[in-house]
Every structure is written in C-alpha cells, then in structure tokens.
Amino acid sequence: MLSFSKGRVVTMEGENSVINQGNVLVRDGMIDAVWSSSSSVPLTADLTNVPVIETNGTIYPGLIDLHNHMHYNHIPLWDFRSSPLGFSEISRRWLHQSWSMGR
Q1: Residues 79, 45: one domain?
Q2: What are the CA-CA distances from residue 29 to residues 4, 72, 98 (Å)?
Q3: How far apart are CA 9 and CA 60, in angstroms?
C-alpha cells in the first residue's frame, strides 16, 4: 500500500531541517522517500496511481503522537449540567478513581 502526502515536512535531521513544500511517500507502513517539491522525484519513488494527500499542514515523518485527549479529539464533549450528580461530584469521583488506579 502506498500513500503520498504533501505539506511542510520536518525531517528531524537537524535543528533547522524543514522542507516548506515537501513530499513524503510511505510504502507498506514505512517511509520510502522524502523530498522537496522543487527537486525531482526520487528514482525509487513510483507514483503511478498513488493518491495524493494535500495536508495543508506540517508533516513529521516517523513521529507518532502518543499524547491524546480522547474527549477533545474523538468523543463529543459531555454537558455536565445535564448530570444529576453535578460537576463537583463527578470530578471528585473521577479523581478518587484515578488516585485508586495509580496505587
């Protein structure tokens, strides 16, 4: 499986190693090529029938974001006002549960 992403690429090779108009080719889950749009496509990169993902953002090849807030990113926010317990009781129970799990 191939994927081809376009955007600002931070290569992690050095402190100022950023390709403002860059490309990342991923083949079978591995980074296959990284290059600037102003340079030619690497010879090993066959882009025939590969879908292009215009990220309009910054790409960090190989970096996996393990810090996630499910309630911000995926789960709709819960309206505490609709709970019969109220915000302070829910917070107290959540903190108690979190503290108990850490022991």
Answers
A1: no
A2: 12, 27, 35
A3: 6
Dist. CA 81–CA 86, nearest whole Å: 6
Which amino acid would we find at residue 76?
Answer: P
pLDDT tens digits, residue range 73-85? 555 555 556 666 6
* Average confidence (pLDDT) per 10 residues, the chain, 103 residues: 88 86 90 91 85 90 70 57 64 66 53
> Quick one: 51 and 74 in the same domain?
no
Number of domains in the chain: 2
Compute CA distances 8 → 12, 27, 47, 59, whole Å. Answer: 12, 19, 19, 6
Structural domain range at position 84: 70-101
**Model pTM score:** 0.59
13 and 55 share a domain?
A: yes
